[in-house]
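Sorry, can you check?
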Amino acid sequence: MASRQYAAAGGVVIDAGRMLLLDRPQRREVRLPKGHIDPGETAAETALRETTEESGYADLEILEDLGSQVVKFSFQGDDFVRTERYFLMRLASPRVVPRNRKDEAQFTPIWLPLAEAVQRLTFEAERQFAQRAIAAFERRCNSPAEPASGA
């Protein structure tokens, strides 16, 4: 049987020392928001769209591309090869929008302290992206401020 291949993109949202995760109780999973890249859509556009659709948070800003990796898995008897790409994001505001019924039924957004968030993620590939996001976020917070122009 041939493997099904597709690309997905998502966001690792960090705000006030916490990370946004999605609890998916029907599957006993805790995940990062992500989804299929639609035709004509960039990975960054997908990441913003999917993170908003699944979490309800509407004012997101991409801070950094965290890269991609290939994940192989089986689900309901089929084999999949998925290229996953994640972006470090922050909340530009706490504004939320209504989610569609399917996403609302599947996912409960939860905010967890950074170290706890990494441990709660169900899949190793997502834990790796969460750790990359924390490292990138800490680099940004610890980098010296840019000198003022015209000084």
Notes: The radius of gyration is 16 Å. The helical segments are 43-55, 101-106, 114-120, 124-142. Strands lie at 4-15, 18-24, 29-31, 34-36, 60-75, 78-91, 108-113.
